Structure formats: C-alpha cells, structure tokens
Amino acid sequence: MTNATQSLRPQLDRARRAWRASPLPRFFAWWFAELGALLPASWGRLFGGGAQWYLLQRTDGRWELRRTGESEVRAQWPRGTEAAIEQAALSAAVRETDREDLRLALLLPASAVLRRRLLLPRAAADNLQQVGAFEMDRQTPFRVEQVHYAVLELDTPAPAGRFFAELVAVPRDTLDPLLTELEGAGIRVDAVDVAEGTGRLGVNLLPPARVPYRTNPRQRLNLALAAAAVLLLVLALAQWLNNREQALAAMQVQVQDMQAEAQQVAALRQELQDNAGAASFLVRRKQNRVTMLDLLLDLTRRMPQSAWLERLSVDPSGQVGFQGQAPQAAALIDALKDSKIVRDPNFQGSIQPDPASGKERFYMVAQLRQAGSAAPATPASAASEAQP
C-alpha cells in the first residue's frame, strides 16, 4: 500500500461507514438476491461474481484450507512441504473459483491475538487507526512498534455521542514468520484475520506493505461497458430527439400547407361572397328599375288613340324623353300625372302645330318611379282601358 493510499484511508473508512449505515446495502442485497432467484442455476454460476474468500489456518503443524462459512477442509499439507506441492494443493482446492474472484485470508487462532473493547466518542470514528495507536499503550502491554493491529467498529448500542469499538492486535513476532513462510511458498494472502466459528472476525491485520496489488480486468470491462451503455443511451436520446424534430418539421410543413389551403378557401369564399353580393345588387337593381314593357304599356294606356309617339328614350338616371303628335298636347299632362310608372311630366320646349297632320307636335320629359312604388299594368287591363 502506497503512502497516498494510506493518506486516503480515513476518507475511505468514513465512506465505508456511511455506506454501511445507509439502507442502500440492504436494499441492493435484497434486490440482487431476488434477481438472482429468477435466473437459472447455470446462469447464476456464469454471471455470479464477487470475491470468494478462502481461509488458510495453521493447525498442529499443517496448513488447512477451508472456504469461508464451511467447516469442511478442502486442502491440507504439512508445514515445510515443497512450494510446488503447496501451490498444487492450493490450486486444486480453488479450481472452481475464478482467479479474479479468489481471495485468501490467513486465520489466526483467538489465543494468538489480543482484543480490547473500547468506548470512544463519535468524533473518533474518522481516525480509528490513530485512536488505536494512542490506546495501544493504555490497553495492552505492547507498544505500537511491536504489533500489527486493527480497530473494528461495533454495532453494539452505546451512549449518546459514543460508540463501541474493538482493538485487535497481534505481536509482530507471531505474524511476520507466518507471512514469510507463506511468501516463501509463493502464497500471498489478501488479509489476516481472527478465526471465529467457521468464519472470520472481519478485521485485517495484514501490514499495508504486504497487501498484494491486484488488477481487476473485469472492472475495466465493466467501466467500458458502462461507458458504452451511457454512449448508447445518449445516442438513443439523440435519435429520439432527432425523430421528434423531424416529426415536428413534418407537422409544420403540413400546417403551412393547411394554412395555404385555408387561405385559398378563404379567398374563394370571399370571391363567392363578392359575386353573390354583385349578383344580389344586380337583382335588386333590376327589381328597382321599371322595365321598358311596363313603360310602353303605361304610356299606351294613358295617351289617347289620336296621339302617337315618334321617339322614346330613357337615360341611365331614369329620365324619360318622348316626342310625338297629339290633337291637344296640353291635355297630356293631366293624362300622365296619375301614372304609377312616371312622375313629374313636363313639356320640353314649346308646342308647335304640324301643318301636315293638323296636330300639335310636342316633346315631354318625365322621371321613372321605383319599381316597388309602380304597379305595372297587365296587357289585358291595358287593352280594356284603351277601348273608347
């Protein structure tokens, strides 16, 4: 373990304690257990990973290897056996475990270590190693230089603002020869712990300088897969966003087309309304104007049979001008004043006698009435009134 790692150890210990105190470990343990129960057993063995701890313990002049939580001895060999034989026995015992998951812990008997229970203030939880070094002289007959030690935080209920911890120490004279013997046989352990039943106490008395450095290819692979998953997620989100943008653009084009069609429909509707208004205007204009037939019928009915017209004209303003001859032209004013077709009859110019016919030549003007106020005469009534 490097000096940088040692300097970061308090922060790492603080993070581990915060993690263990949170409900997340229990939740993830339950979740992964439920997921694992859904997989077939073969898949569980294939995808199952994590550290697999094996416990190496010296008993009566021989080494015994067990798997944590099991009482069955998987391999054993006498002390002082050749290194090749020891490594072969160890390899045969752990052949079912992936080398990346294999972890080896040296177990010390409880009689070989010294354990002291400590009641510490909560502020000391971030510096347990320093607290252990300070308490070593007070709690044990050893100095810090004479032992390898570790401090384990306990879950035992404690007074407010305090917590219980356990100081575990082993003399260097006891541990160092065992580590040297194992290293001479080519066996490096990942931890040194204290035997407790079929398992271990949960401390690590291995000196930092002897902790083996391990590379974790799976971690690199997992990081690469995680990065690929994040990249694929980003690409999927980008594709989804692009699809949404394309759909929005297509909808905008459709809206623009519909707006153009709506404008065309509005223009056609306006044109239709204009045409309908013009047609209505023409109809009303036609209805409000007196027809030439009604004018001729009315003049024929009211003028005497001895009079005739030589010329008849109607200008756009509705003024009627007619020229003709009659025996008594002055009587025509009285004949036309009750007309429902024309009004305000007057002579234009003077009345002059015609030597050839012996009648009076006249030129009269009048104004057409509106069609609603006129009562056009039927041909039958006009003919009956024209009879003497």
From TrEMBL:
Matching Pfam families: PilN, T2SSL
This protein's UniProt keywords: Coiled coil, Membrane, Transmembrane, Transmembrane helix
Protein name according to UniProt: GspL cytoplasmic actin-ATPase-like domain-containing protein
Family matches, as InterPro entries: ATPase_NBD (IPR043129), Extracell_DNA_Util/SecSys_Comp (IPR052534), GspL_cyto_dom (IPR024230), PilN (IPR007813)
Record-annotated membrane-spanning stretches: 28-48, 221-241
Taxonomic path: Bacteria, Pseudomonadati, Pseudomonadota, Gammaproteobacteria, Lysobacterales
SUPFAM superfamilies per the UniProt record, alphabetical: Actin-like ATPase domain
All copies of domain GspL cytoplasmic actin-ATPase-like, residue ranges: 103-192
Entry coiled-coil feature ranges: 241-275
Organism: Frateuria flava
